[in-house]
Write a structure and sequence with these properties.
Elements lengths: L1 E7 L6 H14 L3 E6 L14 H12 L5 E3 L2 H5 L5 H11 L4 E7 H4 L8 H7 L1 E7 L15 E6 L6 H9 L10 H10 L5
Parallel strand pairs: 1-2, 1-4, 2-3, 4-5, 5-6
Helix pairs in contact: 2-8, 4-6
């Protein structure tokens, strides 16, 4: 069993997230990909705009229809700062026979040395850095390169920051996030839509 774990704030989830997850599922032959919305990112100064349950619901809407994708709500339920090492240890204990892969954008790989117990993260899972377009991916100093894999995906220049800005300005989100997520944002008046 090969399990991909994709952590992030998903505030909101967008097509770049979905493309990253599907590219990794396909290329690494993952049996499943679990999206892990963080309660809060300890490396970011500001927290997410939407609350945890709302972000989990948006991811659920976005991945609906893909039987290989699921939402793992444990970090939101736990609350406080979300640490990959804690989640990976739990998932490894629950799935002792599984091979774990922790999915991230190549830009996040540079922060890995600043994570809580980065060596343990690399013991628990293979880190998969996904190159977004032509952004070069480099293994940072002090990180065991043998435990890092790279996956390339087509360029998709969409970000959650851009979606929040567009929503606040009343601009279209069409073709940037799934229609079900846009409907949810309208229904909940998130990001001042």
């Amino acid at each position: 069993m090969k399990i991909g774990l994709f952590g992030g704030t998903f505030d909101p989830v967008h097509l770049g997230h979905l493309l990253l997850a599907e590219q990794c599922r396909e290329e690494l032959e993952l049996d499943e990909v679990r999206f892990l919305p963080a309660a809060s990112n300890p490396l970011k100064e500001t927290g997410p705009v939407a609350d945890g349950p709302q972000r989990c619901e948006m991811v659920q809407f976005a991945i609906s229809g893909n039987p290989a994708f699921s939402v793992d709500r444990r970090e939101v339920k736990r609350g406080g700062p979300s640490f990959a090492v804690e989640t990976l240890a739990e998932v490894a204990a629950e799935n002792p026979e599984a091979e774990l892969f922790f999915l991230m954008g190549a830009d996040a790989l540079s922060d890995l040395p600043n994570w809580k117990e980065p060596e343990r993260v690399l013991e628990l899972a293979t880190v998969v850095a996904v190159n977004r377009g032509d952004v070069p991916a480099v293994v940072p100093d002090g990180v065991n390169a043998d435990r890092v894999r790279f996956v390339a995906m087509p360029a998709c220049d969409v970000s959650a920051t851009e979606l929040r800005r567009r929503a606040a300005e009343g601009l279209s989100l069409r073709y940037r996030t799934p229609a079900a997520v846009i409907a949810y944002l309208h229904d909940k008046y998130l990001y001042r839509i």
